[in-house]
Amino acid sequence: MVKIERDILSKNDAFARDNRRAFASRGLFAVNVVSSPGSGKTTLLVKVIEALNGRMPLAVIEGDQQTSNDADRIRATGAPAIQINTGKGCHLDAHMVGHALETLAPESGAVLFIENVGNLVCPAAFDLGEARRVVVFSATEGEDKPLKYPDMFASADLMVLNKADLLPHLDFDLGRCLANALRINPNLQTLIVSAKTGEGIPAFAAWVEASAARHVAALMKS
Amino acid sequence: MVKIERDILSKNDAFARDNRRAFASRGLFAVNVVSSPGSGKTTLLVKVIEALNGRMPLAVIEGDQQTSNDADRIRATGAPAIQINTGKGCHLDAHMVGHALETLAPESGAVLFIENVGNLVCPAAFDLGEARRVVVFSATEGEDKPLKYPDMFASADLMVLNKADLLPHLDFDLGRCLANALRINPNLQTLIVSAKTGEGIPAFAAWVEASAARHVAALMKS
User: Fold this and answer.
1) Which of A196, B11, B109, B139 is deepest in the core (most CB within 10 A)?
2) Nearest Cα to B122, choosing from B62, B60, B34?
């Protein structure tokens, strides 16, 4: 069983390397967005796409077990989107993303958001070739989640705590949540947002834009 | 003039390399804490030292143009502290820190906080050999400071926004502040604290503890 897992992951890593090269050659900044189901990833993406629209090309790969609802919501913003249905699969893998990239063919210099299947466990192990990994985490999920799902928080670059508008109504200890997350990953960046009210969206948009600029500048140099 | 500055900085960088080696050989995790005057650096250090006391050895180098008030406040926590008075100097340099290190002689494995002179400009250019740089920034200073003092925010690893207890009474746009800081430095980590009420101190303490553990583990490997 362990050997099968190892083979799957090593195959995935090879596809992830191919994706990374493909992203680099097209000047794409790929962001793998992971979370539990229902954390508000799609709403968050809709809001950040609205904030970034016209500032840079944007494209989205949507992962879900079933339905193309999320891709439809993204397309309503004007950004091109493609839906991957994983069927029984509990995560996107690099091979699926490579195929979707060919079909989606994002404009050179685009930010490519990859919304993973809602799952705080399995996607952690699957590199998609992304430049950055963002874990979205709803305040309704409780401040212990970084400790209970450490692989996801350890592998992320940025934690976006969503649904901040609910904080006054929840028994959620924000300080302890941040402390838990930083204990797991002392390099983790954190932002507190409400995709519903728009609080924190300008900061998240600035992070995307500045990180993309830095990433593309580094690609140019290498 | 430019040449003199270059010579000063290149001499400083040589001393900073010596400090980095000295910190490494003693297993120290050095944190350079920079800010405007009056941002609350010393109160913040007192609070985080109280939170970390007994969990790891701690020591502090205090920089000020005059007085040993800050070192006295730190010593009241039980942590050893040494005061450097820079006189006319507007920043600590690596040579001063190297001397202070010899006198202070922190315990092996300690976290060494270096509180710089209150100045949001000059300390940015002077590497002290630290493992991490923390810029403390009071909400009373206004959300445009990262744009006006970009070198400091670009060179920092973590921004601690202090005096959060005053936010309800200030015309301070937190979202815009974070967006400004991330535009200058997309890799910047951020924490919102009130050294006065203790809000955010557990998260800052967790960041220090986990970053120190990671840094010392990396030293062991190399």
Assistant:
1) B139
2) B34
Query: B136 - beta bridge partners?
Result: B35, B160
Query: Do residues B116 and B33 make contact, with C-beta atoms less than 8 angstroms apart?
Result: yes
A6 three-state secondary structure: helix
B166: closest CA of chain A, how far (Å): 17
**Does the interface ipTM go beyond 0.95?**
no
Instruction: Determine the Cα–Cα distance for residues B100 and B87; give it in Å rounded to an integer.
Output: 15
Q: Collapsing DSSP states into helix, strand and coil, what is residue A154? A: helix
Q: Chain A within 8 Å of B146 (Cβ-Cβ)?
A: no
Contact B194, A171 (CB under 8 A): no
Assess A207–B contact: CB distance below 8 Å, yes or no: yes
User: How far away is chain A from the Cα of B155, in angstroms, using its nearest Cα?
Assistant: 15
Contact B116, B92 (CB under 8 A): yes
**pTM for the whole thing?**
0.88
Q: Does A201 touch chain B (CB under 8 A)?
A: yes
A127-164 pLDDT, tens digit per residue, is 999 999 999 999 999 999 999 999 999 999 999 999 99
SS (H, E, C) chain B: CHHHHHHHHHHHHHHHHHHHHHHHHCCCEEEEEEECCCCCHHHHHHHHHHHHCCCCCEEEEEEECCCCHHHHHHHCCCCCEEEEECCCCCCCCHHHHHHHHHHHCCCCCCEEEEECCCCCCHHHHCCCCCCEEEEEEEHHHCCCHHHHCHHHHHHCCEEEEECHHHHHHCCCCHHHHHHHHHHHCCCCEEEECCCCCCCCHHHHHHHHHHHHHHHHHHHHHC
Q: Dihedrals φ, ψ of B119, to 5°?
A: -175, 120
CA distance A166 to A175: 16
Specify the DSSP class assigned to residue A192: E
